[in-house]
Amino acid sequence: MARPVTDGRRPPPPERIEEHPFVETPAQPPHSGVDLLARTVGRLRAEESTRALIELAKGILVERLGCGPAEAARHLRLLADSSRLPLPELAADIVNQAAGDLVAQAAAPTGEQTTAPTGEQAADPATRATAVRLRAAECAALAADDTGAVARVLLDQAAAPLGATAVAVWAAHADGTLTLAGHAGFTEGEAARWHHVPPGVGTLAQQALTGRRTLWFPALGDRGGDTSTATVGRGAPATSGARAVLPAGPGDRLLGVLEIAWPDVRPPLTPQLRRQLEALADLCGHTLDAGFDPADPAAGPGTGLPDLLGGLLDPAMVLRPVYGADRRIADFRIESTNEPFVDPVGRSPGRLRGLGLLEAYPLAATEGGLFDRAARTLATGEPYRADAVRLRMLLDDVPLAVEAHIGMSRLGDAVLLTWRIPGEETRLAHLLQHAQRLGRIGGFEENLVSGAVSWNAQLYALYGLPPTAAPVPVARLRSRAHPDDAVAIGRFLRTVLHHGQEGAATFRLLRGDGVVRHVRVVAEPVLGEGGRPVGVRGAYQDVSAQHWTEVALAATRDRLADTEQESADRHRLALQLQQAIMPPTAPPVDAAGLRVAVRYRPAEKGHRIGGDWYDAVLLPTGQVLLAVGDVAGHGIAAATGMVVLRNALRGLAATGAGPGQLLGWLNAVAHHLTEHVTATAVCGLYDPETRTLRWARAGHLPPVLVRAGAAEALPLPKGVLLGAVAEAEYEERRLVLDDDDTLLLYTDGLIERRDRSVQQSIARLLATAAGAEDDLEEYLDRLLTHSNADTDDDTCLIGVRLRQRPT
């Protein structure tokens, strides 16, 4: 097959496995003193790796022959002389035959072998050279100090002989983000630009990780605004040729991605090259997982496991994965249980130990999802918790339904599974409730179905109301609180009323007699069928004296600690900068037949002040500019980057250009005129004459249109995130608005959850947004209250509603 050429046309898609030759490219001779020095260092490193490989072969002979190190070294030399092989090649042969792993398969000329080649195959110089190269790279990588050194080893000793010029090692996190853990061959500026990749961007590494498959591009090239091939070094001449992207991790645990770049066009991927690349990815996964120490009780199952299980009040069991021939999880073996554990079908713990999860609880593991959840927890390390899960089990072949609260967490290379029956949870809740009823506390209870509210006498006194007054429902708490405490109360209401969890908040209570009290409210939901809150009970406590004491202590602490004062000043500066441009509740905008309302909710933790921004302004052309964006990162850098992009967009919009052109210019600003700022954004221009909204996006979440009570996400135009590449094109879409249409623009802080995909979060937003209220302000407040995001990120929300034309 002829090699494809880069003539400006779109390169072919990722290739499947095909039988094509792939010729290893020898290293080029040095052209300068720097090249000569680099080659000398590389040769010394290769020699050190070769010595480590020979020592590894000696260790295998010591174990196999039962002799000492000196005798093993003598025996190795005799074998090399008799076989007329150099010591490194013989050492690689011995290690491959003992290991039978992916490296051994990669060194074989066909895919059928699982051990080192012998006979005529072993005599093949190319096969022997491949075996030595891969084993030497393995020894050097396992001895490296960090992931950056691993990337350099993989490039110098394994990828460069194949003609590659750069290697990137990505580390995957539970929330879907990727960080560039190590790199070699890419410039420092390019690596810094791609150091952090948020979830949902769709880079090559994220595609390989999500699809759990190898991607091969014979010719990557610089594809401008094409987000399907967005990755580090795509536009650089030295790394814009072929590209291989492989998920990395031991077994089913995917810890990251290995990405290898070539400078020129390559033929389709051959089986032999694929095996070599997969062996390097497997090695990369083991180095990413090298921090786990099985002997450390804090890291995983070990000597401290009985003490850990014995300290748990909830029934618990430890599940250890059992891998099949394909290196995927076939089952989980029940390794141990604690004393509170009781089998729902009456079996003793001794009968359960050693059984597989699919064998002991087949219906609960498959239909109830315990097996899939345990596999996900083991692979990602993401804890799992679910209330009132209905599980089916078999009692003498008769199905038995059990309702339990489930929790899972990774424990080293195993999974800790806990469950609790509702009766036990109710008793614990009552004990907790009585323990909290201390001091000057006013209690309340509210039925969310009927709306009935009950207060005790102390609570009426705390509010300054007569006993005959109507109690204030918890949902109307904002009406009695200081306006600056609206954000804290909003989080409290979402936690209790919509998340169904115990919550607490401290706020300033504005009484009718003019007295201001600092009050702490603690509440717990009463859950009904399906886990939905049907009631709320809790207590208010006057903490004014404690508040002023804390204020005095904080002032003293600030005077004594200069570093804390400096940190507080930086946080306050970022917060003031943020609030100066985006107040939490901005005045509504009425222009060009539109009513525009905005909400901004900062992150709960002060150090996570982010770069979310919005804009809604009437342009001199009579059009209305609508925009929302999210700068990657937090702190001063994110806040200043947000200011640059927001002000730049306002100035560019005055030129009369369309939203696609505006985002193209804004991408140039982010790429060339900032310190490695990357951001997502949606930009729209509304024309009141035609009632048409032209809009474009840069890697942002889709806007939501609410029409006739139904909510739908708008189809996404193409557009890469701002600052990722030097030049990008952004596709435009048009939307004609009808009377009473409502359009929502938002950032990911409104919907994002760690336990759900982006598609699931958007689907929940659509269900919540359906049936918009007449009042746009109340409608936005309801969306913020119903938000169940758990990433503690700041949030921007714009609501646009088209008023009816006068008849």
Automatic annotation (TrEMBL):
Full protein name: ANTAR domain-containing protein
Domain ANTAR: 34-95
GO MF annotations in UniProt: phosphatase activity; RNA binding
Swiss-Prot/TrEMBL keywords: Hydrolase, Transcription, Transcription regulation
Domain PPM-type phosphatase: 595-802
PROSITE patterns, A to Z: ANTAR (PS50921), PAC (PS50113), PPM_2 (PS51746)
Stretches with biased composition (Basic and acidic residues): 1-22
Family matches, as SMART domains: ANTAR, PP2C_SIG
Transmembrane segments: none
Region (Disordered) location: 1-33
Start and end residues of each PAC domain: 503-555
SUPFAM superfamilies: GAF domain-like, PP2C-like, PYP-like sensor domain (PAS domain)
